[in-house]
Amino acid sequence: MTEHLDLSKTAAATPPGGDSAEAMREKTSAALSSVIAAVFLTGMKIVVGILTGSLGILAEAAHSGLDLIAAAMTLVAVRVSSRPADPIHTYGHGKVENLSAMFETALLLLTCVWIIYEAVRRLFFQSVEVEASAWAFLVMAVSVAIDFSRSRVLKRAAQKYHSQALEADALHFSTDIWSSLVVIGGLMFVWASRAFGIPWLDKADAIAALGVSGIVVYVSLTLGKKTIADLLDGVPPHLREDMIRAAHVPGVLEVGNVRIRRAGPDFFVDVVLTVSRHEAFEHAHDISNQAKEAIRRALNRPNADIIVHVAPSREEAEDMVADVRSLAARHNLAAHDIRLFEKKGRPCLELHLEIRGARDVAEAHARASEFEEVLRRAVPSLDRVVTHLEPVRTESAPVTEDEAQADRDLIQKIVLDIAEAAGVSCDPHEIDVEDEAGELAVSFHCSVDPAMDLDSAHRLTERFELALKSGVPRVGRVLIHIEPPEPA
After folding, report:
1. In the chain, which residues fall in CATH 3.30.70.1350?
2. For residue 343, how many other CB atoms are within 10 A of its CB?
3. What is the CATH number of domain 401-483?
4. Measured between alpha carbons, how far is 20 from 27 in angstroms, rounded to an integer?
């Protein structure tokens, strides 16, 4: 049985693999504000960097220029990833956010290569005059304030809607704050070199640029590693264990294969649950729903797309019985009434073995003994094997109508005698006798006092069954339906 999340009730507000209209507006607004801020900062840093000759500010201008490209890509990615799933993109378009973050990482690393090259050139090969003016300090202070504001806006939207593209932008712009502070520090050292006549402090601007590059490289590699993991459907090591613990709701015997994939803000989870084979279908359905809700809570994703496959358990005894039947069939034998039990802590086996085409007892016994040896080799833990030999059931003569009527009369008499001896009123009716491969399958309805408790009624049917199997030849399966008398 496979359970799948039904989103039909929320499809209008949150289509599968897509965002609601409100989420779309908020995410777009956050990304658009980032684009506008990046345009302003890039232009301002370029102008001041050229006027002052500061490599640190020019490095920041280049960095902000890439921020502008990244912010624009984030805006596009957010809009595209919000589209719902379609017949071609069955998991939605969330991976567009991962691709955006990957491209942003590549741009940042390319910028770092240029900044490091220029910083090394100024440190060792060429002297460049840097003017630590008030404008330079002002533009960097404004940059810090704007970066702080937009990183908070992006972070709130990313956390609210689980957007990887906005999360990457928020992380990116929060590091811009630190890199801007490094540039301000470099400018302060340049100013100090002029004010106090310390020439070697002129190199502080280039060193500040290297500091900016170091920060950007670290952030880029962290972001790139996470993006690659998401593109390859990687998940944190603890997440799968969390899902297994969450899915272990009451009624689940074992949590099997668990698969998790993420596409942008959307999570997709496949899980196999083993429940008792004796569970009713409705109860198994309830168990799967409870497991889904527990997984959603553990993920903190109310709209996670979850598929639960419920598999019935197989007990060790059932496996043994199936193996014995299969082994007998491979040796042209038929095994039935197989009983597996323990005696002094060791497993023992009793079974009825149908011998096809045996001429006499000696041949039938030889074939049974051969099968017992094969069985012992297959199941070395068996302590004792006892086989009851019999001909193939289909070789028995079918029951005639006269015999069936006689059996029905006898069944009715036995039931009435047992009921009388038990001091209860019973009306056996709808008696049916069928020949099933040489055995009689008996079923009938029995009307009893409606006030009789269920345990007493069950014990009465057991007495009926034992009496029928001992009093009627070839009776095998017995099915008795207890019911109150029909109204007159």
Report:
1. 237-312, 316-395, 401-483
2. 9
3. 3.30.70.1350
4. 11
Query: 384-391 and 346-355: which strand pairing?
Result: parallel
Amino acid identity for residue 185 in this structure:
G
φ, ψ of residue 125 in degrees (nearest 5)? -125, -25
187 near 202, Cβ under 8 Å? no
Residue 192 CB: number of other CB atoms within 10 A? 15
Q: Convert the pLDDT of each residue in 18-64 to its tens digit.
A: 455 666 677 777 777 777 877 877 777 787 777 766 665 676 677 67
In CATH, which superfamily holds the domain spanning 17-231? Answer: Cation efflux protein transmembrane domain (1.20.1510.10)
Q: What is the pLDDT of residues 102-153, one digit of tens each?
A: 777 777 777 778 778 777 876 777 654 555 566 667 777 777 787 787 778 7
Cα Rg of the chain, angstroms:
40
Query: H helices within 197-335, ranges in order?
Result: 204-231, 237-247, 281-299, 316-330
Q: Can you give the pLDDT at residue 115?
A: 73
Confidence (pLDDT) at 205: 65
CATH of domain 237-312: 3.30.70.1350
Q: What is the C-alpha separation between 310 and 283, in angstroms, rounded? A: 11
Domain ranges in the chain with CATH number 1.20.1510.10: 17-231
Distance separating alpha carbons of residues 318 and 293, to the nearest angstrom:
32
Q: In what order do the strands lie in the sheet with 333-343?
A: 333-343, 346-355, 384-391
Question: HEC states along 161-209?
Answer: HCCHHHHHHHHHHHHHHHHHHHHHHHHHHHHHHHHHCCHHHHHHHHHHH
Amino acid residing at 360: D
Q: Is 197 left (phi over 0), alpha (psi -120 to 50) or beta?
A: left
d(CA 232, CA 58): 36
1 pLDDT more than 50 = no
- Report the alpha-carbon distance of residue 393 to residue 439 in Å, rounded: 8
The two three-digit tokens of residue 79, written as one number: 């809009």
DSSP 291: H
Q: How far is CA 181 from the centre of its chain?
A: 44
Residue 372: how many CB atoms within 10 A of its CB? 17
pTM across the whole model: 0.46
